[in-house]
Input
Amino acid sequence: MISRQKIEAMLQSIEAEYRYTKGFTGQSSLPPEVMEAMRLVARQEFVPPILTTMAYENFPLPIGNGQTISQPFIVALMTDLLCPEKGDVILEVGAGSGYQAAILSRLVQQVYTLEIIPALAERATEVLQRLGYENVEVRQGDGYNGWPEQAPFDGIIVTAAASHVPPALQEQLKPGGRLIIPIGLPYRSQKLLVLEKDQNGMFSTRNVLPVSFVPLTRA
Ligand code: SAH
Output
């Protein structure tokens, strides 16, 4: 059974972390639409059964294959930074458990998500299908090259840390779109960046917050 109380406590913890990090992020509170999406997605379905009781704690959890489901605050913040709109088509690199994709799917028209580890891609596909997230498509593959067949995207979110911004992702972003990506060394302090592409295809970059993500690996 989904614990409403646990979900509300998770949302309060996210709100508290918004306040602590406001000096870095410039974002003072979780937007109501993002909060509602986080209220509606059962995070417990995306974590291993043995961790169900911890599913709504505000920290990352292991999902197997050395990977993690991100901390709820980070999922909320990255979703918020993307400024999702109802008609948007979004690309995620690093499907992992499928949780971030499920949150986004409640806010936009279509989510495409790439996962490099076959077992995780399969599991994310299965859980998203079972829960009825019909506007999410998971594909196994190296997200460094993006998803050219479905490009361009209104927004792109990368949930693994890269040493640099993959050029294909910059190309596959629509003018006016945003790319959210952690950049830095594996397991060290990385920078969460927001890149905005203007109508002339020029990028501006904002460094939002020190973060720690698993590395973006290559095929
Ligand atoms: N968004 C995920 C968090 C996943 S952690 C969630 O909500 O659960 C990052 C994921 O990125 C891992 O599953 C890892 O296998 C995947 N990954 C790493 N490098 C990748 C690449 N080049 N292409 C696609 N996925 C990649």
Notes: The mean pLDDT is 96. The first strand starts at residue 61 and ends at 64.
